[in-house]
Write a structure and sequence with these properties.
binds 1-O-pyrophosphono-5-O-phosphono-alpha-D-ribofuranose, binds zinc ion, single chain, seven-stranded mixed sheet, five-stranded mixed sheet, globular, D-Maltodextrin-Binding Protein, domain 2, Alpha-Beta Plaits
């Protein structure tokens, strides 16, 4: 019998601030893919994995509904969808599994340049236009504010000029959209960055194994980004001080140095970035011949 190959689907943003970084992350996980002519689909050549390129706002629902097994989206849309489709008894059907160091932006309230703002209480009784109604409602509730939320699916930044709202609440990255519309950012609602989400729907063993494998590789890539392999020479007497200075290191390898009884070589993987200051501090306690190398792959 011919069993059809079970492929997993990963949803990514089709064009925007997360697209290149998301594709790059999957490439670094060893996935090779070809992009379809319409640019909406990538076929994994060396693993049974397909990438669906969709609107970022649609990613949480696609993963929750089990159309896709994994997704990379901004916390802004993940949080909003979690509030919209989940309840305390029945949470949204996805889990946030990794936080990624890209797509940094914030959901913020902005006001016309000449509107005064003295904290959340200024919003009392106002109209706030947004594509993030649940996140805004949560913010208002946390601050005990009663205001009208005007839902708009796009072009939120022109709502105050059109007289539809007094404030807007939208995503701010560089701030150029606000500046171009004579708006002033007055209040951060929450900080956002890209996250990996995984469906909670039960998968076949084959698919689950593949999802686990790709997530393990994502974890490896994330660990490597911050990790450095450090090599140095040091007097035996300074070993304790040196170990304390190496950031995020575990069990260094100590190697005898030919021709020296009192000096050793130390090799260690540091799980945090190693800055010039660290090297200067190491040198100050007697270390020499310091070398810091990037780590290419890591599987722990
Ligand atoms: C957001 C937001 C603004 C823009 C802000 O849109 O709606 O339009 O980015 O970025 P800036 O501060 O750098 O100008 P998003 O990328 O989510 O696109 P979408 O609203 O079409 O999904
Ligand atoms: Zn969007």
């Amino acid at each position: 019998m011919n069993i059809p190959e079970q492929r997993i689907q990963i949803a990514l943003q089709k064009s925007g601030r997360l697209t290149d970084h998301s594709l790059d992350l999957l490439s670094r996980c060893g996935l090779k893919f070809t992009r379809s002519r319409d640019q909406l689909f990538c076929y994994g050549e060396n693993m049974p994995i397909d990438i669906l390129l969709v609107r970022d706002d649609d990613i949480p629902a696609l993963v929750s509904d089990d159309v896709c097994d994994l997704g990379i989206a901004g916390l802004n849309v993940v949080h909003e969808k979690r509030l919209q489709i989940g309840t305390d008894e029945q949470p949204a059907m996805f889990d946030q599994v990794y936080s990624l160091d890209f797509g940094h932006c914030r959901l913020a309230i902005a006001a016309p340049k000449d509107t005064e703002y003295c904290g959340p209480s200024t919003l009392q009784g106002s109209r706030i236009a947004t594509s993030y109604p649940a996140s805004v409602a949560e913010f208002l509730q946390q601050h005990g504010i009663d205001a009208d939320i005007v839902y708009l699916s796009g072009a939120v930044e022109i709502a105050t000029r059109l007289g539809r709202a007094d404030f807007i609440c939208d995503l701010v990255c560089t701030g150029s959209t606000l500046a171009a519309n004579q708006l002033r950012e007055v209040q951060t609602v929450f900080e956002s960055n890209a996250v990996v989400i995984q469906t909670r729907a039960p998968l076949s063993q084959t698919k689950q194994d593949l999802v686990d494998r790709i997530l393990q590789r994502v974890n490896g890539v994330l660990q490597v980004q911050e990790s450095k392999y450090v090599m140095l020479h040091a007097p035996r007497s300074a070993l304790k001080e040196i170990a304390a200075l190496l950031p995020g290191s575990e069990s260094p390898t100590i190697i005898p140095l030919e021709g020296f009884d009192d000096k050793v070589a130390i090799h260690v993987v540091c799980r945090e970035n190693v800055f010039w200051e660290t090297l200067e501090n190491l040198k100050a306690v007697g270390a020499s011949s310091l070398l810091v190398l990037p780590v290419e792959k890591m599987l722990v």
